[in-house]
Design goal:
By secondary structure, the protein is mostly beta strands. The protein contains three helices and 13 strands; from the N terminus they run ββββββαββββββαβα. Strands 1, 2, 11, 12 and 13 form a five-stranded antiparallel β-sheet that branches. The protein has a four-stranded antiparallel β-sheet with strand order 5-6-8-7.
């Protein structure tokens, strides 16, 4: 989405027709939160949903941890290496897939304009439903998270262009300023960027 001259999208997947991975939700309270895990990385127990469905370059798992094919890893690694660590996750149909741990947290969320859900018990941020950004705080980098919600991964034009140019399939780039609920219930794509390979 173009917000005040910015091009930032929420990285997600269109998982209705594709194979999905599942893990216990509480796992993500302490993993993929912007902290390195490379030193003691052990892949979690995974369940595979839709085993006979399409296997893409981006696989649906949790929005906090993109899962990519070996092809996507090789294509994107140089671009995103300074801001991430790429961890071996699972082998599917004889192919290796990786979890991307985004380490770069950028304090650029516009809290006044964003739709933030706070816990009624302790006032902590549970999640950010709609994200808007402070233009002067967004660095020129391809991928990042915000401290308020490490459960979302945001990407910029260079990341999107690399996905399109290399024909990587399965990624969707959603407008961070729009709640994803409508797209989920209507079973339509979250993607708002033209030219993304299907």
């Amino acid at each position: 989405m173009k917000q005040q001259g910015l091009h930032i999208w929420k990285l997600t997947t269109d998982s209705n027709q594709d194979l999905n991975l599942r893990t216990e939700l509480d796992y993500f309270q302490t993993h993929f939160v912007g902290i390195s895990m490379k030193g003691d990385w052990v892949p979690p127990l995974l369940r595979i949903s839709g085993k006979s469905k399409r296997l893409r370059d981006f696989i649906s798992w949790m929005t906090s941890a993109p899962v990519v094919s070996d092809k996507a890893k090789k294509t994107l690694e140089e671009l995103i290496a300074p801001y991430t660590e790429i961890l071996p996750l699972i082998e599917l149909r004889g192919k290796q897939f990786y979890a991307v741990n985004v380490l770069k947290l950028v304090n650029c969320l516009d809290r006044k304009r964003s739709d933030i859900f706070f816990s009624p018990n302790d006032g902590r941020i549970v999640r950010v439903r709609k994200s808007f950004f402070l233009e002067d705080r967004v660095p020129d980098i391809p991928i990042f998270k915000v401290p308020e919600d490490a459960g979302q991964v945001f990407v910029t034009r260079s990341f999107v262009d690399a996905v399109i140019a290399n024909g990587l399939r399965g990624a969707a780039f959603a407008d961070p300023g729009v709640s994803p609920i409508a797209a989920i219930f209507q079973r339509r794509s979250h993607n708002v960027v033209p030219g993304v390979p299907e």
